[in-house]
Structure formats: C-alpha cells, structure tokens
Amino acid sequence: MESKRFLRAYNSCPVGLRDIPLVSTAEFRETVVRSVADGARLAALFGRPHGPNTLRLLAVLARSREGALFIVETEVSDCYPSLTVDCPQAHWFEREMAEQWGVRPLGHPWLKPIRFHYSYRPGYDAWARSATEAIQPSVTDFFQVAGEEVHDVAVGPVHAGIIEPGHFRFQCHGENVYHLEISLGYQHRGVERAMLGGPTSRSAHYMETLAGDTSVGHMTAYCQAIEALQGCIVPARAYALRAVALEIERLANHTGDLGALAGDVGYLPTAAHCGRLRGDFLNLTALLCGNRFGRGLVRPGGVVFDLDADQAKLLLEKIGRIYNNVTTAVDLLWKTPSVVGRFEKTGRVLRQTCEDLGLVGPAARACGLERDVRYEFPSGIYALSHIPIALGETGDVFARAYVRWLEIQRSVAFIQKQMEMLPGGPIRAATGELPPERLVVSLTEGWRGEICHVAVTDVEGRFAHYKVVDPSFHNWMGLAMALRDQQISDFPLCNKSFNLSYCGHDL
Amino acid sequence: MLKELVARCKLGYGTIPFPAKEPILPDRYRGCPVVDTARCPGQCRVCAEVCPTSAVKVSADGLHLDLGRCLFCGECETACPVNAIRFSREYRMAARRRQDMVLPGTGTGTARSLDARMKRLLGRALRLRQVSAGGCNACEADTNVLTTVVFDLGRFGIQFVASPRHADGILVTGPVTENMKPALIKTYEAVPAPKIVIAVGACAIAGGPYAGHKEVHDGVEGILPVDLYIPGCPPHPIVILDGLLRLLGRIGK
Ligand code: SF4
Q1: Mean of per-residue pLDDT scores for chain B
Q2: Phi and psi of B165, rounded to 5°?
Q3: pLDDT for residue A11 is more than 80
Q4: The pLDDT of residue A215
Q5: CA-closest candidate to residue A436, choices A412, A456, A414
Q6: For a substitution probing ligand 1, which of B30, B130, B131, B136 has the most ligand atoms within 8 Å of its CB?
Q7: What Rg do the C-alpha atoms of chain A give, in angstroms?
C-alpha cells in the first residue's frame, strides 16, 4: 500500500485529523477499490460535513497481514462515482451515506434508504424528496421476480417471537427462495447524531444500549477510543476484567444461540438446557457488576467494580460448573444425526462471497477466514494473552454453529487463565478532557464480530463525529446470500445461525 | 433417547421456586432506590447533574427520583455526599399508575391487580403479544427468558403468542421509535378488546436513554393506555415476573 495515499494507523492509536491525506475523488475510489482487491477490508466508510456544502468521505481499511489500518479522505458535494460496483463491501455504507447526507453514489446498483429518516444536510436528499415528504419505513422498491408460481413472502416488522423488528421479503418460486431482501431501520433512535458535541453523561448509556446483548463489547470499543485519545494508561487489572466480561458476553450469546438453533430444528433437549445456561452466564456478568448485561461495569479509564479473592474464586467455580453443563447440553447436538443433517449444507455462504461482502465474526470464520480482532488487531489484554482463533470450513449453518461451540471452549479456557493470573493494582485510572482535532479507530471483537468505532474531535475536543459500525452492518447481506436457493422454511435456522442485531444496525 | 435422559439427569431441575420463596439476586444487584429527603440539604444538586436522564430532581419541595426514567446506573448514589439516595435490593418495583413511580412515595412495588372483571377474564390465562418498539434487545431478552425452564412462565398461565389476534394484551419494550409507531398501533388495534398494555423498561416508560430524541416518542405514554409499568434498564426478569403476577392478583392483595 502506498503510504502517501493513506495514513497508516493502528487499533486505538489516535492520529491528527490534518494528517489524513485528502485525495481527489477519483483517486479515493481507485485507492479503496484497489486495496480491497488486494486483501484489505473496508472497516468503515462514512461522510462527515466539512463546511456548508462539502462533505468529507473517510475510508478506514483494515489490513490484517500488517495488523494495520489505513485511512484516506476525499471531498465531495452532492454526488461521486459509486464504489460498490467494484467493491461490494461498500454497498450498505454508500446507502448509509446517501441517506445521512444526501450524497448520491452515481452508478450504485441498488440505492435505497437503510434507516428511513430525513437527510442530516438540509437541502440535500439523495432521492430528491422534499423536506415535507413523509418517510415511512420499508416504503421503497424491492427486487421483483416474475413468472408462473413466483411469489413474494413479506414478513415483519413485528415477528412471531420476542425479537426486534425488521422487514423481510422473500422472492420465492414455490418453496425455493431466489432472493431475500432485508429492510431495517425500525429501531433507529438517532444514536450517532446524539453523540455529537459529547462526551456527555448519556454517551456511555448510548454505547451500552447500541445493541443490548453487546453492552460490554460496544462499551469497550468506546472506552478504548476515549482512553486512546486522552493517552490514558488503563491499569492491567481493568484490562483483564474487561476481557473476562467480554468473553462471558460471548459465552452467554453463543450458548443461547446454540439452544435457539436446536429449537429451530425441533430438538428440544438442547434448546431447553441452553436457554437456562445462557441465563447462568448472564448471572455471572451480574456477579461482576449487578447487571446481567454488564451495564455500568466498563467505564473510561478502566472498570467500576473490582473482584476480591472470594468473588474471583466463586466466579471460577461457577464458570467451571456452567461449562460442564453446556458441554453436556451441546454435545447432544453433535451426536444427534437428525440435527447435524439439518445443519449441514443449509444456508451456505461461499468463501468468495464472504470475502466480497466483507463479513466478520463467526459468520466469516465459519467460511475459513481468519478474521478476528483479538488476533488481527489485538488491544487491551489480548495484546499479551492470546486466544486461539476458531475456524470452520463449510460456511453453512453447521459451521456457524460449530465455530460458536469452539469459541465457547476457548473463551472458558481464556477466562480461567485470566482469573488465575489476574494482575493486582487499581482498576481505574483518571480521565480528563479530549484533545482537539484527532481521530481514533477503535476495534473490539464482540461476540458477533468486529465492532468498529471511529471518534473525531473538533477544535474544542468535543465529538465532531462518532461512527459506529456494528458487525451486523457487514453481515446482514451475508444472511440474504445464505438464503439463496434455500427452502423458505430454512429461514429461521439460517437467521439464528447469524443472529444479527437490528438496533446495532439501525443505531 | 438414552443420551437425552442422561443429560437430563446430569443437568437436573432448573425451575426456581419464586414466588413461593424469595428470589436469589446478585449481591451487587441495584434494585429500587431509596430516597431519603430528610438527609438532603437541597443545595448541591450533584445527583441531578450526574443523572443521564433527569430522573433525579431537586426542587423547593425536596429530592425526587422518577423510577420510570431511572437507568439504575447508580451515578446518583456514588455522587451524593450524604447518602440521600441509595440503591436497595428491592425487586418489587412495578406500578399501575405513572405518578406512583416518583420516589419517595408509597406507590411502587405494590401494584394493585386488575379489577375483578378483568381478573376473571385474564387471571388464569393471559396471552401477550410482545412488541419491540426500539428496544435495545436487553428488555426483550429478559422478557424472553421468562419462558425458559428457569422461570417457567407457563405455570402461571401466562404465554407469549405470535399473533395479536390471539392475545389479551401487548407487552411493549423500547422508546417507540418514529419508525415503529405505526406497527405498534396496528398491533394494539389487532388485539381484541378488552386488552391491556404493559410497558417494560425505562425506554417504554419514558424514552430511557433516548428520551427527547426526535427519532423516538419517549415511550408508550400518550400513544396507548398503559396498565402496568415495569422499571429498569433492563428490569431483572424477576422484576418483570413480579409485576405480571401482581397484575393478575397472584401476589399481594
Ligand atoms: S430500557 Fe434499557 S434495556 Fe430496555 S430497551 Fe431501553 S435501553 Fe434497552
């Protein structure tokens, strides 16, 4: 990668805003497209206003070979040549920018809103809608398939179970799905917009509720960003406790999902046991901080609650016991041919598709891609203490389930190791003001995959921009692809194997 | 079949004895705050300043905490120099009326049951449709968990159903985003009368962390009539269960 076109950065290492190279739009496009073709991944792409009529587009490319991030910017007004045709990873990012700033990516193959809100730039709208035109969720064009026996199945936003809302359209031929279109935005609460001018007393709460089941993951990413900007030295004990909480979050969700997958194929023993064991993990998080989702545990500078020797012992004891039970419950799955038979070859995503779309997390690892922030861009305790990466091969429901199971085993071992060598000392360092005109990219491996936060400060050290990329943002398209050429009745199973976040996406 | 039975024996019986026995809550659990107005000299207002959602107010008539807005973050407790606010381990927090959620008060925790007619109709078999209207998924998760073997909601005759047409009411989570408002109203309208509405979590009660955002409606208030408020961010499953059972007259008077 040519250094003059990019600013090289690292996970949670701030850079000067003025040091980011500003290139022509053509050069920007070429640089991004070329480096993605060369193995980099688009971790973030967003627009931020710069003056009344101009917008800066900023790309963050992640290159795991070097463990480095590359940043480049360009300036546009109301349109620019779309990247998506040559770089499918940009697909949803470009839709997002179009919706937020009214900037049109010319030649984008399927330009539609994704959160269904008004443009943040008065006078600019990518679809030439007037400021008074009502914007209704999922009121947009959908793919159409025509012919005999061809039909659409539309479900949502309110689904059958207790889950978040989204709208799904299946273009079917009989039972067979040609394509699934996913239309989200129902959970849009305006988080990024509300972060501007911060940090405020609400910032931490926004982070902990970006995706409720990823409270620790998003909060860790936020804290890393703040701490890096301030040059705050976080105590080692805090890093360890954060990682323990993050891994418990992974354990809870993976266990719950394995249970849900079992339920979706009608195998109730594992479903019933895992439903309960997931709660046992959540209770471990509550042991740390009183809240089952880890609310109030992680804060800039470290963590709020310490563990004394007795509590640490209790935690170790409990985790061992829960893990034994999970093993018993999950082993049933792999030993039941009817379950394995339903998991195998269902909802397959090809490795190439996975690379093209830039999938992250277990969904990517299930296709054999070694994509894991803890390994590629380690921060905190992960920089010192490694956790083996869990890989699958077949990219189907089975692989996504099995990767989760491998991760459960490795996370338990990791937590045990951390607890046994828990560093002493304080749990929180003092934090102060943020420096002006800096940018930091903070990556964390949440249980769904890469969480990317980009914080930009203004001349006064307030947030001039705060970008959140939940792993779901990369992965929803993966689910759509997994459904191609499947039976529509396999949707619940495929969906659960990804278990993506609606509100993490909708922000 | 044998392996399933062996596993069943190993894993044992998981249902908790609530409400017959008191629930086991985590040591660090932050339950209902206790507001001791007498301790507060009413000068410093640090509690009000640190509160992310303006749940705490210090005015001429003393110190007040609105449980409906509270995120249970504990910031006020940490900030208060005279311990005028502290978090207890009380899980009985549900209320029938919004005004009962302002502390100090007498209203919370003792939510009265539905009137005799509604209790006769719903008391033995309550079916709810859950609507997530912008909830972060924590409230949803801790509602969902009630259907696991641990809480075994079914033993109380309460069930979550897929269709509003089969429901006696709706359980709403989330601040009611602009984009979910029509679907929420349509779902409510599809429930046959008489019907009830339960607001779970700080978001559904008053907008939670998102209160005041133009993308949300600050909860169900003003959109649908609410029969039961269950505070928390998210409420512990026991708080939700306690509220539901009180509504049906299964606990308390
Ligand atoms: S009240 Fe809290 S936990 Fe519940 S949906 Fe809102 S933010 Fe999430």
Answers
A1: 91
A2: -65, -25
A3: yes
A4: 96
A5: A456
A6: B136
A7: 22
* DSSP annotation of A117: -
A74 touches chain B (CB under 8 A): no
- pLDDT tens for A223-272 read 999 999 999 999 999 999 999 999 999 999 999 999 999 999 999 999 99
Which ipTM did the prediction report? Answer: 0.93
B132 and A293: CB-CB below 8 Å?
A: no
d(CA B96, CA B31): 18
Tell which residue, B201, B206, B86, has the closest CA to residue A209: B201
Tens of pLDDT, residues A160-189: 888 899 999 999 998 999 999 999 999 999
- pTM for the whole structure: 0.95
Strand order in the sheet with A463-469: A15-16, A438-446, A449-457, A463-469
Cβ contact A473:A505 at 8 Å: yes
User: For A189, what's the count of Cα atoms within 13 Å in the CB-facing half-sphere?
Assistant: 32
**Gyration radius from chain B CA atoms:** 19
CA distance A506 to B6: 44
Query: Which residues have a Cβ under 8 Å from the Cβ of A291 and sit 6 or more positions away?
Result: A285, A297, B30, B72
- Give the closest-approach CA distance of A370 to chain B in angstroms: 29
| B140 touches A163 (CB < 8 A) | yes
Encode B1-33: b = buried (16+ Cβ within 10 Å), e = exposed: eeebeebbeebeebebebbeeebebbebbbbbb
| Angle at the Cα of B15 from the Cα atoms of B11 and B18, rounded to 5 degrees | 155
* β-strands A22-23, A68-76 pairing: parallel
